[in-house]
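Hi again,

Forgot to attach this to my earlier email, sorry! This is the prediction with iron/sulfur cluster bound. I've pasted everything inline since the attachment limit keeps bouncing my files.
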Amino acid sequence: MLDFNHSSGLAWAADDNIKCPSFTERVSELIDQALSAEHKAQPERDYLGASRLGENCSLKLQYEYTNIPKDKGFSGQTLRIFAAGHVFEYLAIRWLRLAGFELFTEKPNGYQFGFSVADGRIRGHVDGIINGAPEALCLTFPMLWECKSLNAKSWKDTVKRGVSKSKPVYAAQMATYQAYMEGSVPGISKNPALFTAINKDTAELYFELVPFDASLAQKVSDRAVTILKAAEVGELLPRHTADPEHFECRFCAYRNRCWDQLIGEVLA
Ligand code: SF4
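Structure tokens for the complex follow:
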């Protein structure tokens, strides 16, 4: 008689009361350890990433810029989510090119298009630049291309409210890129950017033409200068909220560092 019943995903120790990690958990753990080691081996950023400048909390950006240690590093799952985002972006590039878009994602030397200002202390790398598309779309070039992969809920909200309202961080990112790339790609701020969002659950696509927002770019740039200056003189910028339970704080990687003392006082 065959008996394969013992080959379920659960493993049990000799003492039946002790549950061992399942096979999935053990393999996932190995992968996550490898991903974490790979991530830790990468050099820390020594600049303010323009993609982050629309972040609501200046203090958080200051922590990031000055490489203050996070409460804990990225989990293996988060690193896997980041990696999956790159794969979705790769797919979007392929699909747009198949559809006739002249989409450039890197220079002949293999580097991404980008910019560096303030003696290299503010830098950004763009997802791509479009320099041609099917005529029927009546687009003008060059245009910035920005791509994000979102879960179904986030994607639907972006479709419903538009990128500026739903994802102001991305809108700030595009405005900043358009402003700072104008020097090396003349005309990129005259034409709307093409924002692309992929629904990670259903592979649905969303495209939005986003006109250059000069006042937003200026606001973001001024903010970057404030962060650089504060870091230079060692002053901490104010928190964006007085409520440690604010939803952005609850998900912030610096929450303990930022609020522990106050939380202690509140609880005392
Ligand atoms: S915990 Fe909140 S206030 Fe503190 S850095 Fe993070 S987002 Fe800003």
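Residues 57, 59-60, 63, 239-241, 248-249, 252, 254-255, 258-259 surround iron/sulfur cluster (CB under 6 Å). The two ends are 65 Å apart (CA to CA).

That should be everything now.

G.
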